[in-house]
Design a protein that fits this description.
Elements: H1 3-16, H2 19-30, H3 35-60, H4 75-97, H5 102-116, H6 120-130, H7 136-146, H8 151-165, H9 167-178, H10 180-222
Length: 223
């Protein structure tokens, strides 16, 4: 595995562990009367939106970020890496310094209660808006473009990123299907754990990703 592949994996993990996405994903499963139905449509909305963005970007970006010397990224890619890294580090500092906000949590719960009792179209739309990888999408697109992929490789890499970023929700849905009683009880515990620890775990992965981006950006600028 090369450094670009490793960076793509870190990006997918950072997206997967995003506290906001995780919280919305858990809430949609614990607040509704039909969690499997609601969660499935929520997941399909998020996955469809993420895959759609990747398909569109394949035509726009393609392999524009690829360098003939992978260890020395193009100058504009290096500048982008440094900008991404600094933005991620600033985000981590801001999130960790921000005190817990009960009103924000209550707002998220109220929002997801409405989603859980909404028609299918609204649930799919909520999934597309609330559970997509968000800010990590541009980084993943840049990483894949740097790999100079063929059309098939691009699809495989983007599907990998999309599936990993939504893996917790997919796993919860599978467990709900296989063991609904146990899973519903476990999700309540997961929700409490997320409120206490999720942002610290996510911050660690994001810092690793930022350091990888910074290292690659500096390497490209001084090459």
């Amino acid at each position: 595995m090369g450094w670009i592949d490793a960076e793509l994996v870190l990006t997918a993990l950072a997206a997967m562990l995003s506290p906001t996405t995780l919280t919305f994903s858990v809430l949609v499963l614990v607040l509704g009367d039909r969690p499997l139905r609601t969660g499935l449509w929520f997941y399909l909305g998020a996955l469809g939106a993420t895959l759609g963005i990747g398909v569109a970007a394949a035509f726009v970006l393609g392999n524009a970020a690829a360098s003939s010397t992978p260890s020395e990224p193009k100058t504009w890619v290096a500048v982008l890496d440094v900008a991404f890294a600094l933005a991620l580090l600033a985000l981590v500092v801001w999130v960790l310094r921000r005190p817990a906000n009960p009103q924000r949590t209550a707002g998220m719960i109220e929002q997801m209660q409405k989603v859980a009792s909404s028609p299918i179209v609204a649930v799919v739309g909520a999934g597309a808006a609330l559970a997509n990888p968000g800010a990590f999408i541009p980084i993943a697109l840049k990483d894949i473009s740097e790999l100079d992929p063929s059309a098939t490789q691009y699809i495989v890499n983007w599907v990998f990123f999309s599936l990993v970023s939504l893996l917790p929700l997919a796993t919860a849905l599978l467990l709900l299907l296989l063991a609904p009683g146990w899973t519903k009880h476990a999700l309540l515990g997961v929700r409490s754990w997320l409120e206490r620890n999720a942002r610290n775990v996510a911050a660690g992965i994001v810092v690793l990703l930022a350091l990888s981006l910074l290292r690659n950006g500096i390497a490209g600028l001084i090459a």
